[in-house]
Amino acid sequence: MKKFIFLLLCVLLSSCFQVTEKIAHRTNQSGDYSLVIDFSDSWVKTRAAIMLGEVDGEKIPSEAEMKQKLTQFRNDASKIKGATKISTSYDFSNYVFKLNFSYNSLETLNEVLNTIDKETKLDHFKEANGKFERIASYPIPEKLKEKKDKKEDLEEAKITAVYSFDKEVKTVQNANSKLSKSKKTVFLKHNVWSVLNDNSLMNNSISFTP
Q1: Per-residue pLDDT for 127 more than 60?
Q2: Does residue 65 surpass a pLDDT of 70?
Q3: What angle do CA 143, 149, 153 make, to 5 degrees?
């Protein structure tokens, strides 16, 4: 799955895209997770890259391969206890890819996300001292750092995190975060080039009003 995402994101070498991660997390540690990779702003270039089959020497997965990998994710995630409502979707008219699932604990959330990269087990999310923490690790190919001529495109591409809670947020560690009027949703956005060079820009530690 990780290799599939790497290959898919190679399309970004010639396309603008958006990655959006959303979580609705509850006090009992359960919640809902979604990840959207959206190439709709540059679907013409994306379609051309996929039809060509490669970008800068990197093979691009076919539509059939994309469907197969999303099915594989559903199958792997469905075997994890505490993971439910697992779904994936694809829109090959606009090139938008989504995965969604519910989890009964942060441990389950991490386990499902680790099915994307089975060789590396990470704590993507954790709760420590009453704080909700995100330790960012987005599947962006490291080799893109070498593509200096693509810097402008990667600065146009965005990664957005939207975390909602069932209680009010008291403090947010990441200074680039924005808090909703209800004080229950935290927004954080950076361009892909910045995150590629410093993944920690998407890290966050959120505390709550008692």
Answers
A1: yes
A2: yes
A3: 90
